[in-house]
Design a protein that fits this description.
Blueprint lengths: L17 E2 L3 E4 L6 H10 L1 H4 L15 H9 L2 E2 L2 E8 L5 E11 L5 E8 L8 H16 L4 E6 L4 H9 L3 E12 L2 E11 H5 L27
Length: 221
Amino acid sequence: MTTPPPTPPPPRPAHAVEVGRVVYLRYPQPRDCEAFVALRRASRSHLEPWEPRAPTGFDAFGYDQFEWVYKSRKRPEQERMLIFVVGTRELVGQVSLGVITRGPLQSAYMGYWIGAHATGRGYMTEAVGLMLRHAFGRLGLHRVEANIQPHNEASKKVAARSGFRLEGYSPKYLQIAGVWADHERWAITAEDWRGGRGGRGSGPARGRGSRGATRGTAGAG
């Protein structure tokens, strides 16, 4: 009896920057606008407690937000990517690097959020791991920091699973909903990442996983 040939892996999603087992990252495109706005609006009550208040006249849950994310998607000082589910290609969130600093620092701040309906499925943890792979691999950074409100347990769990370590506490660090909110400082270095501290989706790429501004704050994980 002959053994059937193995099932080939699914094709790589078009324009994907980093691909994991359950999600992939790519830069926003104009065609993502409606899905992005719908996701943000449906998740407003889930996200709003963790995000800085938008300037007067700016709709952080509408087309203004997408236009800002799209225009700032790939710059020397920041990178913003959308998170999609492998297979369905559904848009479920965003992960970003901000204040990318070169020279002797080689560092950045990470921020991330995921839609309310997509929590608890491992999407955010893998997406953060993929962005770390991008940061330490393609971008050649040395350190990535995420600042998280102490009571944001979901985002802290994502950071811990992704290999970040708690480094300190910053009182009244960032204005959230008009109030100066305390934040915990979580960070990971390239040495940690290469040594395997990074979680799912992190670490140097294997197989088909990868082809050769404001300070980031971790939102709803």
